[in-house]
Every structure is written in structure tokens, then in C-alpha cells.
Amino acid sequence: MLSDLPKEMADEVLSRLPVTSLRGVRSTCKKWNTLSKSRTFTMLYIREAKKKQRKEFQVAVILDCRLSLFSVNLLNPSIDLIGMLLDTRGIISTLLRRHKVLRFVDEPSICEFEIYSFRSNSWKVLHVNPDWDIGFFRHGLSLGGNTYWIAQDKKHGTHGPFFVLCFDFTTEKFEQRLPLPFQPFGLDTVALSSVRGKQIAVLWQKRSCSYTLKIWISSRIEPNVVSWNKVLLMVDMKRLTGFPFLFSAGSFFVDEKKKVALVLDKEGDGGCTSDFRTSTRNIAYIIGNNGYFKTVDLGESRKITCWPLGCSYVPSSVQIKQAAPRANHKTA
């Protein structure tokens, strides 16, 4: 039986399993449950994870409002489903005790900014009078304990300049505007991503002419300072896809060494330039220099207005303590 394997061999076998399988392993038998929580196994698991990261990395992707874990290999381009991340409520409630949540509504009829602390279990009103606007479709990027958005100057309406805006959770305030390495127009696709958890990357694709896609990576990023390296990747997408990525989508990942990017979006529909495509497929587009291009079908999308959204995922074997289930009380 597998449970009778020598400890060293069992360690080696179990350390190669994806993180989504560990829960099943622990419920298989007491021996494996104890083994998978040992320090020796943890160190071996981390070592194996680092080996895999040299060739591939893991990403958490929301598809049709469901969170899934994928393995991405940009060396031999592929993206494979590892499993569904279903049991997240206990993890979120435990980890966020040391964190804060920013909530804001900035509309002509209402302007409210509040921050919630899990440590104090309370909301606090922030007094903010924004002269900028963050589109409802703009996804924030968390990096180094701060959150960054693509924002636009309010004074000039839809023709206002774009920039990067940071909310510092330590000072609990929005910092000064940070410049982009380009200046987009209203319906251009602009998105942020993280690189190695240390720098930010920005994707820009024009809506006109060649649908040229460009990606930059920062050389320095702080709440009040940003500097950019030269363009990492520049691709004429018109001859590859015939359509631009949705301005409300464009979630992406980039490998700076291989100069390859993976962009999540819907399937194109023959050159449609609006965000109301009739496509029912979620697609991963893998793009590189010298015309390199590949698509991976991520399956059917049952929600037309739900666009794929992804972020980097770092596997961990740390145990999250969850509250014991409440006993059922009978009433007379």
C-alpha cells in the first residue's frame, strides 16, 4: 500500500503534488497527515516548488466568478488547470485579521471613502476630495502592502491625462500621481501586473491603427516614486488577432527574461472593437517577439459580462487554523 512507503520516499512523492491536492492527502491516512505537516516535508515541498518556478508559475484566475488555479509555462507555452480553489473563506478570514480593506464610491451623486481594519473590527471614514477618477472596470494591483490603479484626471473629462495612483495602507491615504511611460486615450487597453512581487508591469494597447501592444516594467516602485525601464515587448496585434483586447479586461502576466506575455481575455469575434462581444469562450493569449503567438482555450464563458481576471499565486504549505464547528443546540 502507498501508506506503507518509507518516509523518505513518501516525502519525495507527496512533495510533487500540487497544493490543491494536499488537503486530500491529509485526509487519506493519519501517517500522511502527520508527514505533510512536518518541517522536513515543508522544506522539501518549498524546494520542489522553486524547481517548478524555474520553468512555470502558478496563477489564480477568476472565470465566470469562480476561482481556479492554473499552471503556466511560458518556455514551452501552455496553461493547465490544476484545480478549483473552493475552500477560501477560512483562509481569507484568518489572514485578513492583519489587513485592511479600502471601500470607496466616487460618483456625481455620492462620494464616500472608508477603510476597514480587521484588527479593530471597525470602519473609519476617510476624508478624500478626489480630482481624479478610477474607472469601474479598473482592477487594482496589490504590491508591497499598497494598492495601485490606473487613474485619470477629472478636470479634463474623457480627455484628461492618465497616471498611476497608489493608496498607502500604512498612512491610509492616496499618494501623489505617478507617471506612465506613455499617454493613452480613452478606450485604449491599459492594465497593471506585478513582476516577482517586487516591480509593476504596465500593458498598453492602442485602439487605432495596428492595435500595437507594448509592455513596460518598472525599475523602481514606491508609493511616491516610479521609474520605468525601456519597452520590454512591442507587438503588432492587428495581423495576429485582428482585434484589440477589451479595455475592461487585459489581465496579464509577463516573463521579463523570456520577453513573453500571457493576456487573459474573451475570444475575438471578427474585429469587434466594443466591450460587448458575443463570444462564449475564455482565452489565454501567449505573445512574444518575432511574431510568436499562441492561444489556449480556457473553456466556455456562461457570463458574457464576466471577463477573466488573474493574479500571481505563491504556493504555501502553511496550515491555516480554522474555527471549530459550532455544536448544534436543541431547544425544548
In short:
This protein has 332 residues and is mostly beta strands. The protein is built from 5 helices and 21 strands. This is F-box protein.
What does this structure look like?
This protein is mostly beta strands and 332 residues long. Among the domains are: 2-52, no CATH class; 142-313, no CATH class. Helices cover 13% and strands 39% of the residues. It is built from five helices and 21 strands. The chain has helices spanning 7-14, 22-26, 30-35, 39-55, 89-95, and strands at residues 57-63, 66-73, 78-84, 100-107, 110-117, 122-125, 132-133, 141-143, 146-153, 162-168, 173-174, 189-195, 199-205, 212-222, 225-228, 233-236, 251-255, 260-266, 281-288, 293-300, 309-313. The strands form five sheets. Strands 7, 8, 9, 10 and 11 form a five-stranded antiparallel β-sheet that branches. A hairpin with a 4-residue loop joins strand 2 (66-73) and strand 3. The radius of gyration is 22 Å and the shape is globular. Mean pLDDT is 76; it is low at 86-97, 270-276 and 316-332.
